[in-house]
Amino acid sequence: MSNPEDEPNHERLQAYLLALSDALRSLHDPVAIQETAQRLLAEWLDADRVAYAEDVGDGVHVQVTRDWTRGLPSLAGRFRYADYGEELTEALRSGHSLVRSDIASDPGMSLEEKQAHQVLGLGATLNVPLARNGAPIAILAVHFTAAHSFTAEEVAMAEATAERTWAAVERAQAEAALRQNEEKYRELFNSMDQGYCIIQVLYEGRQAVDWRFLEVNPAFERHNGLHDAAGKTMRELEPGIERKWIDTYAHVAETGESLRFEEGSDALGHRIFDLYAFRIGRPHERKVAVLFQDVTQSRQAEAALRASEERFRQFAGASSDVLWIRQVDTLALEFISQASQSVFGISPEAALADAEALLRTIVPEDRADVSLNLEAVRAGKAVVHEYRILRPTDHAIRWIRSTGFPIFDAEGWVDRVAGISTDITDVRQATDRQGVLLSELQHRVRNVMAVIRGIAARSADTAGTVENYASLLSGRLTTLARVQSVLTRNPDSGASLRTLIEEEVVAQAPQQDRFELLGDDIGLPPKATEVLALAIHELVTNAVKYGAFSGDTGFVSVEWQTAPRDGAEWLLLDWIERSGEAVTPPGRRGFGSELIESRIPYELSGIGRLEFLPSGLHCRLEFPLVNRPSIFQTNAPRPPAEDHAGKESKGGGLAHKRILVVDDDYYAAAEVVSAVTRIGAHPLDPCENAEEAHRALRHNPDAVVLDLNLGGDGPDFGLARTLRASGIPFVFLTGYDQAMLPPDLAATPCLQKPADPQAVIAALLDLLSPATPSPSKNHRRPR
After folding, report:
1. What mean pLDDT, rounded, does the chain reach?
2. Whole-model pTM?
3. Which residues are annotated as modified residue 4-aspartylphosphate in the UniProt record (predicted)?
4. What angle do CA 46, 47, 50 make, to 5 degrees?
């Protein structure tokens, strides 16, 4: 039912409002404000009960916190909106008062709804809601035990009472909330007297342009700052008053619709007002009564409280860490953030309902330590500790770092214990992964430096001048850098054969019509990319200096195909030069020749041949397209370096000793072989992998120089343990540090690439010196 349409008796209404204002003026307690307002309204309406209820925030229930009755039992308690009719629910949500004059005979109510009212002894009700942003926050209910015909005056009284009561309660509650942690006994904020005025809307033609203050009460100026307003127009007092005020009062004056609203005004000192405006007198007089109060401070207090609560809510809700607060005496949870679901596998609701829920997730071995730390926080100490939990949602073991700290009251006693719990499992794993990545970087750099060292040394062997040496080294390192760029972008995929050849040839060929590439494009494995790029570079460089590209008519044809052989797919590549002139074989074996004829067989298990024909150079390359790791890729975990600086060796103790070098890097192996050869040792043929090395052991080496990552899949200690069991002394030469060695091999000498040949020789001397026997020589096998 809607409100009665008869006009209220404004004199009686005004008298009531004055009485209500007088009654509430000296009150500071929200409970006293509500009780006084309820009693006064009940007395003026001769009602049987006036109740005040608050919405509990779940959209379902309302809580009657207190009521005034004329000898009836109190209805304090929780009630469901739905039990008292959909019409009531909609009215409350929309903010409109709902009158039910005769519940027993109300055709709009169901039998169940009537019975719900009958249980409470209700014959007629008037419910005045207070809403904010479309949501009910409180209700003032007027009850009669028998049917009662409500007048507009009674409805207006109830509505004004609800508004004033709520404003007073809001003010008191907001002020109390902001000072919650101050002195135990303090005085409530003084209630604010409302301003009251009667105005007349002024028109020019049919357009409202201003209003005149006919009457104002003593509190008027205190609320809006307008001095000596009676008899003056608003624009005389404040020319900059906003247009919205004129439109609002004109609407009330013209339509007779009473408005209860809250509005701010920048022109009046940025104040916020809570107002109730209603028309008085004859309609053509355009008079409006305005009951208002300055609620700026209370709104600011509310805004500050809401902002603080919202900041904490957003912080707690957005945090991936668990924020929690416990009672100091019982350790019962008072608050826990949403992250408890993802971190502990327990919802906030379940954790709040069961104080032991989180503690039960801690693995038994760590519970005692967690309890000790909680006790330390209860004693006033801040602690940081780590423990493990078994998360019930996925049965995963997770590591938790918890920072616990006390919250003190005003007197310095521990009032609450709080904390922040972080799942550090991923951090621990990330730290481990970071170590692996750093190890990969270290191992990769060391391998690359070893190759660069080998290239630099071989380039020096054939360079006649410094300028020639710089040119040779620059070209070879540029090619190596290009290969590195390709392989590090995607270490496992290698490169396109056609692109690799084309980039090298195009960069140096005199004209683009002086060469041809014949063959379907194929993908090269990483190791093949690394070696073949250098080989093609050497062939192109040789063609520019001495071959087909050195004259005006020479031509280069690069042809390739694949064919199955020995259970693998092999690449068969021919580099054919037609220079028109006879080619003279070089007087000595240079870098390119060694690369093609030695490194390809060593590192790619293939064949490399050079033929110097009358028509020009013919190079034939054959190797299996198997996935061998490049120096630019590694799965190695990492270690720190060992310094061999200062070790000196003359090498005499290695004369005639058989030294076996096991390394999948041709240049690293060749450098060691060259070094031990120069001091009179007898190196065996170097081995690229463990299988070849096992076969080479039948030649009874006196010592072994051993790389660890022979297969590219990380360190393999199988061959090292075989050597130790056989009594053959050995030294590691690798990109790893000694820290990577397992305990049973921890005493083995370990040199990091690129190692100075003198350091290798010094290590071999230490191994073979009778004065300082190596642990690996204790079981020297007889020959």
Report:
1. 82
2. 0.36
3. 707
4. 135
